[in-house]
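seq as requested:
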Amino acid sequence: MALRKEQIIEEALQLLNESGLEGVTLRKLAKRLGVQAPALYWHFNNKAALVNEMAEAILQTEFADLQPRGDGEPWQDWLIRTLNRLRKAMLSYTDGGRVVAGAHLSLTMAKISEVAIQSLHSAGISLREARLIVLAATHYTFGYVIEEQTTLPSPEEIKDFDFEQFKKEHPLMVQSIEEYFSSGRTVDDLFNDGLKMIVGVYIQHKNPCQ
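struct tokens:
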């Protein structure tokens, strides 16, 4: 029976969850599907094409029904809510951040950007500024998720790390981290506070007297 494209993508996403992006190869995928590697080339010329389709599948879990900002809804709220959905989609798979950020031909990602720019522009923001805000906030989201999904240091690395010396050399960094999380804030709060900073810089720039 001929392989369906959807079947290959589904198996590739399962392999992604098990082995991470580096573990997703056409050879391994063909073995899991019980076919020879050349059979996959009917659907994907190379790994980059496969990764692009994997990104589409990941994004569609959250953005199959993306709607622009509603009348009266603050564009800041809409943008933050939409980028939280983007983060959620990427976190749903191992290395999902790397997959989506690396898919340069993603039609769904292009649609998200288009609708986001439209939502800001319809709120009175210039087209140039709308694009820059969306670009900055999207890249921030990519980077945040990729860092979240980065492999933690091994027990051996932690054992050999001199935390006391690190604290002495970076007192303000350590103090600011401890102060932030001691109040019960989470990594979700940190993500959203960063987004609010991006939005806030724009507001401050437009309203310097406030």
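The chain has a mean pLDDT of 91.
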